[in-house]
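Worked Example 4.2. Consider the chain below.
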Amino acid sequence: MREIIGIMACDQHYVISNKGELPWDCPEEIAFYRSMIKSQIVIMGYKTYEQMPPHFFEEHTVVVFSKKHRDHLNPLVTIVSSLDEFYQLKNLPIDKQCFMIGGAEIATLFLENMAIDCFYLSEIEGHYPGDVFFPIHLISQYQRIVHLTGSCFKVYEYRNLKG
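Applying the procedure from the previous section yields the following structure tokens:
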């Protein structure tokens, strides 16, 4: 099975979103995120899909998890409704890395099923209002190291040592 890498950002209280948007402004972290996933396979939930700009789908191989919206998505998107269906996909490019980019429901699904090999979690300095949180308890057993320190954030790399 191919390696799946998680990549997301949160504040110091693990907020990842507020009313469907990032509550902080940290261009340096966005640049890190974009450099990591550029032209790669990205896996996301439907709510995250709705937030992406149209050009995003032309620049990546996109897999969206959705049980309800199977007929309403961009033709550049592959739709799956479960991890089993995802694992059955045969059309994903073998020369690209696979990144799970969120949101919280998809991160929880992958982490609960031990389907993430490595997770890059950017911690944005400060505390922000939010209504969606990263499930940090699900990676507490992973090995954590500092991967990168920026002016307004720190990226922690979590490695699943059991997989």
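The beta strands are 4-11, 15-17, 41-45, 61-65, 77-80, 98-102, 118-124, 132-133, 143-149, 153-159. Residues 4-159 form a domain with the Dihydrofolate Reductase, subunit A fold (CATH 3.40.430.10). Compare this with Example 4.1 before moving on.
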